[in-house]
Amino acid sequence: xxxxxxxxxxxxxxxxxxxxxxxxxxxxxxxxxxxxxxxxxxxxxxxxxxxxxxxxxxxxxxxxxxxxxxxxxxxxxxxxxxxxxxxxxxxxxxxxxxxxxxxxxxxxxxxxxxxxxxxxxxxxxxxxxxxxxxxxxxxxxxxxxxxxxxxxxxxxxxxxxxxxxxxxxxxxxxxxxxxxxxxxxxxxxxxxxxxxxxxxxxxxxxxxxxxxxxxxxxxxxxxxxxxxxxxxxxxxxxxxxxxxxxxxxxxxxxx
Length: 255
Known about the structure:
alpha+beta, seven-stranded antiparallel sheet, 9 helices, about 55% helix, globular
């Protein structure tokens, strides 16, 4: 388990998903560990940075510099992790399946089932709305960052029903909530208007992700097409923007 946790933390750092990194740390590092105190301090720095990015009170250069410092710091801490720093009572489902059911496995399954049931309730709708707002906020932040790097013009519009429209040159991203009945979905559409010859059916691609809980009890966006695909807010926003900007990059190659 120690090696698995350490591997997961290093993977999250390489992927630049610091938000998910600190979530994993919180659930798996012993609170009394000396390293946990250092992780908490760096997590606090990261939270302040995120707020500054959302409010636009920090420059791109200063933001990148702080991200690099935080990344270097957590990399060093992960290297220092020892087996005794890892919580022993939280066992991933995959490990449970290999070893057989542990004493607390039923309670963990019950808790996961309860969280998923709650998410489909009226109370869970509030959780969904907060997650949707957090995702669209992350999308707006990354759109600004990516478009500055790629020198693209963009605009963001919010319509009734919390639908977000992100226009990058001639590629449009539409983010729509879906909460009919007990659904907790997000509809993600990318429309390509770079080529007038494209038929209407060829212009648009649609992905549907569902807000759900992972086996580690983390809120994630899970693909309706492939249940093995799970994304954090940042990962989902990056996926959308990379697809949209790739269309523009490929189009410009033919100019």
